[in-house]
Structures are given as C-alpha cells and as structure tokens.
Amino acid sequence: MYSDGYNLGLVDPAADAARAEAYAGCMDEAAVALFGHALRPRNVVEFGAGTGALLEELARRWQLTEALGFEAASQLVAAAQRRDHARATIRQGYAEEALGAIAGRYDLCLSVNVLEHALSPQAFLSVSSQALSDKGHVVVICPDGDSADTELLFLDHVSSFSEPSLRMVAAAAGLQVIGSIALRGQQKGFRLTLLKPSTSAPQDPGTLRYLSLAQARSDFLKGWSEIDAGASEWLDNRPYAIFGAGEFRNLLRAYAPRLVKGAEAFLTDEPLATTLDGRPWLRADEYASTHPQTIMVAAVNPRSWPVVAGKFRSSGAQIVHPYLFSSLLKEQL
C-alpha cells in the first residue's frame, strides 16, 4: 500500500480533482483569515505533489509564473506528466534531493499530507524554509493531531502533530508559525499552518501537556480493535456488502480484516473494474435496488458519513458505519 506503486490519487480522478479544488479554497480562506488578504505568490514549489492536481488548480487561480512539484511515487508522476495543457511541472524525487536546484527561489513552499510521513520532520521543514525567496512563506497541511482520528492508523504516518508540537518542530527548523487553522467540511480532521523563516529559539517541549490527548488516542485505537468482533456480533451471519473502495476501506482491511473478507461485494458510485479483492465491484445504486434486504457497511471517513447515510437511507437502503460496531467509536457518528 505504501511502496513506489502508491497510486491513491489514481483510484478516483474526479475525487482527486475535487480534493485539489477544496484544498486550494482552504488556502485562500486561511490567508484571508490570517493576513486579511489572499495569498498571491508569483511561483510555488510543492513537495509530495501527487498527480499535480493541486498545483494545476493553484496555477490557474493564482496565475503563477511557475508551478513545480516533486513526487516520490512513479505512477503519480507519470499521470501528472500525461496531463494535457499542464501548467505545472512534476518531477520524481524527494524534497531533500531537490534543494540544490530550488534554494531561495520560491514565494511559497507547499506540502499537503506529507509532513507526517517524513522520517525527520525538522529536516523536511528546513528544506521547505531554504526553498523560499525573500518574504516567502511555507504552507503545511497535515492531520490535526489535537484530536484522535484515523491518521493514527496509517502505517507510514511516522509522526502525529498537535498544534504546539508542530510549532516546536518548526522552530527547530528555523520557521515561525504565523497562524494555524483547523479545516472544516470535507477537510475536517486536518490543519493548515502558515509559517515564515525565523531565528527564534525552539520552544521548550517541557511546557507541553499531552495527558488528555494521550488518553483520547488510546481510546480511539482500542475502539478500532473492537470493530471486527463487534461487526461479527451485530451482523450475525447476515449477508452484507461494503460501500467504498478507497482509503478507509484499506484501513478496515488492516484493522478489521474479517469484516472486509466477509463482504459479498464492494460498491461505489462508479466502479473502475469488475472485481476488487476477488469479489464483484458493483454500482451502489443498482445493488441497493436489487438487494433491498442486504445490509451495506459504509467504508467512508466519519466526516463523509452523514452525506452517505442520507443518500442511501432516503431510498430505503440499510446502511451502517463500522464505528457502530465499537462501543468507543459509535459516539463519533
């Protein structure tokens, strides 16, 4: 799941484009809230650029003179390089490898859901700082570690950043946090942080208090460990299908494997193949109409659950979320 073959941005191109548009909108809104005006950099470099969808959106919105992205996964780079009439250039590689070519050149250095993967967050942020032109800024979007969420479940999330801990790491990398905003809507669970170069001393980690957050994270992880057994008891050998084929389903495969293995089919709005994991991959609306008594389990992030539940329940379909199967998680729905 996390090798050079990483291809999550290719699973649903429409969702990838919608995600890019949403994050671009979040950046504009955050800049107005923090600065009183929109960001208007002349050029942007992005680390972990994926398919280049976000850079393309920013190049269009901001009329950039240059939009350069670096991405480690070869499949995503290849997809970006096949884009017709591309405004952005995407190269394969890591931030640290690129510094010699980009140092001191960019008005904005951007990374979205990358910092939590870095083996050395301080080194990553240091490279981001060194890429900046005079008066340049760094924008980091990553999971909001101030709340216990699914970001704790990902194998390749090396770090989880609360707002104070990100300030501390940034200071050690020579960056000062100008402002930090918890995102809303479909981006709920993520935080945007705007930074600028600084020579201030790093914050003393001894002033940070994490006990309540540690308990919340412990309860969250224990809750996920309950899903498989809870699902078996609740479903009681009744047939069911799983709606969703993306990131959340992958988490269920890892942490509730019996639930995923027992599904008779996988459902999405637009299947991209005829089978998935050796079972039929079907259109959700058609399946719901032909199997009205079969339960659907929604493999979607809780922030998307109200929309998904409303969509199917309005047509009479039986759909539940996996958090229902856990005594510690069902209150989050």
Rg to the nearest angstrom?
21 Å
Structure annotation, total helices = 13
Percent in helix: 25-40%
Assign the CATH architecture of the largest domain: 3-Layer(aba) Sandwich
- H and E string: HHEHEHEHEHEHEEHHEHHEEEHEHE
Portion in strands: 15-25%
- The count of domains is 2
CATH class category label of the largest domain? Alpha Beta
Shape: globular
Number of strands: 13
Could you tell me how far the N terminus lies from the C terminus, measured between alpha carbons in angstroms?
27 Å
For the sheet with most strands, the description reads:
7 strands, mixed
Neighbour order of strands in the largest sheet: 3-2-1-4-5-7-6
CATH topology grouping of the largest domain: Rossmann fold
Q: In terms of per-residue confidence, which ranges show pLDDT below 50 for 5 or more consecutive residues?
A: none
Superfamily (CATH H level) name of the largest domain: Vaccinia Virus protein VP39
- Overall pLDDT metric: 91
